[in-house]
User: Fold these one by one.
Assistant:
Number 1:
Amino acid sequence: MNIILAGTGNVGINLAYALKKRGHSIIQFAGRSNNKPEIIKKFRIDYTCRLPEIKKNTDLIIIAVNDDNIPSVADQIPDFGSVTVVHTSGSVEMNVLSKFRSHGVLYPLQSFSKEKIIPFKKIPLCIEANNKNALRKIQDLSDQLSDNVHLISSDERKILHLAAVFACNFTNHMYAISEEILLKNGLPPDLLKPLINHTAARLDQMPARKAQTGPAKRNDKKIIEKHLKLLSYSPKLQKIYKTLSDNIQQDKQ
Amino acid sequence: MNIILAGTGNVGINLAYALKKRGHSIIQFAGRSNNKPEIIKKFRIDYTCRLPEIKKNTDLIIIAVNDDNIPSVADQIPDFGSVTVVHTSGSVEMNVLSKFRSHGVLYPLQSFSKEKIIPFKKIPLCIEANNKNALRKIQDLSDQLSDNVHLISSDERKILHLAAVFACNFTNHMYAISEEILLKNGLPPDLLKPLINHTAARLDQMPARKAQTGPAKRNDKKIIEKHLKLLSYSPKLQKIYKTLSDNIQQDKQ
């Protein structure tokens, strides 16, 4: 496939490597800066900062920019009719691209960085399209990139994003609180890493609900009281400890 | 070293494998059941269920039983004077063993199962002892088992346990909530695994506080409102979402 990539950020660069590896031609990069960014130079591919003038002879245009910039980037790209235009965002609806006769979404459910290019083979790709031809095009491409392709509607993507806030953002906040508690008491945060990794890896063996352990799960009131006392310096942390322990106890089967 | 292991559970069996691997002699297992448990038979080692009659010619007795049973097990073991007695618990104070002239703690900070014996090399071992000789004995042994040995007091172990509740128990509860949200909407929980693993692995690169992302971190009120609306079926989940988002926002630098 001939592909144009609009966006030279973390997602764009990782996608570019994955697409090249599968033998696709990226015929042009489009970005905001007037000069070709350093990271693009490696690819020896045409670069433009003038979106209205991007190449026409392409099969697919991938918009891989920040959520807030998708509408303005889409505005500047001409509709060539047979060219399918997709964005890569988890939280933006597909219909932000509705001016293109053929459009869709190709959302890789992973965090990317330019510093560490990662293989796409296992990354869940959530795809959506406004018609059968566009879907076939996006699906064929996605199946080549990953073994983990899912047809997900815009509404389902919102749910996915909400679930990710719990499983990733809030989880990271739990790590941050535990770091803070350890550092405040002169203990190295590294101590908990093996247990943290174990907790994440255990999801391969059983659902999280079944894997739940700890004082709240076994209704160990003595320990819960002791912990709340240790946290007496921070009513906020006490509130979090209580709220989550209550919820775990209500979940008990 | 000649070692007696009191306890045939997950910790005991994993310790037995690790000790044997480093060339130590486990001269006896002690357990509750009258008959030698199946899992012990593999070791071809003497077994007893009568603690008061355990062998005397040993350097170390390791009590690896449930927290609640440590006092009664300790009660039944005679004090041989030069024999050091340790327990392996994260939340029980060392002085529960104070009847032994030489006593301490050897707490491996990891979850174990009999089904999957894991290597000790990277496991943090938290040790404590009531005198220099006991400490030297426990430290020498621990250094042979792991590269990750820490001198941790009983008070520090309490803090460690509290931090682990946040980093592991509460984290697992976040996974459970996200599973519930996905399943309720007919989406496969596996979708989030790559992101979950990424969130845990990122701790090797930066402190969790620095790695924080998500709507609360970037103060994205529109998304937060949308998420609370999606959770309107569960006031409990709304409360958790709000409590944690508020705390992340207060953490903002």
Note: The radius of gyration of chain A is 23 Å.
Number 2:
Amino acid sequence: MNPTEFNQKIAEVRNDRDRGASELARYCLDILAWAARELPVDEVTPWRETLFRFACELAETRPSMAPIANLLRQWREALARDCIMELPLARHTAVARAEALIALSRRAVIECADHTAGLLGSNRTVMTHSFSSTVLEVCRLLKDTGLRMIVTESRPREEGRQLARQLSSWGVPTTYITDAQMGVFVARADAVLVGADSLLADGAIVNKAGTHLLALAAQENKVAFYVCCESFKRHEAGESPAMEEMSQTELGVPDWPAVTVRNVYFEVTPARLVSAWIDEKGVRHRIEKP
Amino acid sequence: MNPTEFNQKIAEVRNDRDRGASELARYCLDILAWAARELPVDEVTPWRETLFRFACELAETRPSMAPIANLLRQWREALARDCIMELPLARHTAVARAEALIALSRRAVIECADHTAGLLGSNRTVMTHSFSSTVLEVCRLLKDTGLRMIVTESRPREEGRQLARQLSSWGVPTTYITDAQMGVFVARADAVLVGADSLLADGAIVNKAGTHLLALAAQENKVAFYVCCESFKRHEAGESPAMEEMSQTELGVPDWPAVTVRNVYFEVTPARLVSAWIDEKGVRHRIEKP
């Protein structure tokens, strides 16, 4: 892997609209494993310095997605700790570290989904917004237990289609609606379940735009609002991450002179609208303030 | 006009997705004026009976749109009151009654917009959802006073495009967003302004799906939520009107076996989320309950 190839990967991660935060974080670890294996240098010091730089650059590509920064920081720290001076072994160990973190992330998703399925129970109507691979895993676990889903289309990219298609292939009775109908249909759900791209220190979540509206509508209708996301999604820094904005062309409208098209992908939903957070360790219910 | 032509008009009104409630009500009066003028009968009694039936059938086409029922009832009542037994004069009078109600409806919209523009004032950022001809008239009145607009696309038919195009032609700086971004952008508005298809007895409004979400987000952000609609939009009956559902094909998704596509056009936004109602008589602010 040369710097040009790496820059192509950086651009690919930055422009990715299909993968969720966890999946993209694992893809970043794949890229780093590839770089660790293939970087065309003969000495361990420039090899390690380049990898450090790559990891830092990748970590900054998607500010709304905490797991990328978190998993890549863990990988960098392991690389620094290992401090192997023999290049072939250093390459081998760095790859193994990436693979171990990928496995850890995958296991966290599965355990998180397992706790969430237990919390929801059988014969439930669950509403979601956007596409979360953790929510999909929960649906897989519950698909033969009378689960019914309500799925929003999730403009502009309409990730809801992908989810509806998968649910249909499992035979899960699914209602598919526009985002604007969230307020109409949330009352028919036993619970709302969303994933998250990041979890802030105070319990607020960063997720696809529209999540905040769904949380408000759930509260209005006294429907539980659950967030399932692995602890890798915790945003450690004090400040809220930047809310990424994508291309205006995704809205598919003409270029009107006085009109500015906005396409902010993510938004913060405050902790007070969340009924419970589920991660790989279990369920944490919100404690009502008196 | 024969019954076949009338049934075509009924279908046209039932399937209309472009006109708002007031405009469609005026179009129904146009249809009745045409029928009053052209019905191929020689006696006043079958002429009047047929017109009554036509007016009743038209009034029932769009349950979410109160002005249709209201204006057509007023027309029917005038027809019964006038009770002219000479057919040419009866035809002429019925047409004049329809034209007078059309003018009354138009004037009500203009006066309602005038009061609304006065309430908003100059140099304001106003957010709206869907397309309302009354809101458009407010924008026309304020377009040279520093007005800025935030417009949602309003899936599935994307009426927001029509509004954005018109605002752009007036040079009104406009932000165009997906419905899912309402919660992100409402905080940047000085006020939310929507029209309504019907106004319920308790002050709740019937408007395009998504309005309730915008009202919740406005409340969350302490942004005023105004409804401008003429008094013809009052729904007089005790019960809420049916919320019309349109064709599933408008969402443009494939036919997945386990998936039911829903396309509910209208929803009720409760009165407690409305800051003020504006009609042709003036502004009525909500009185906070202690």
Note: Chain B touches chain A through 48 residues (CB under 8 Å).
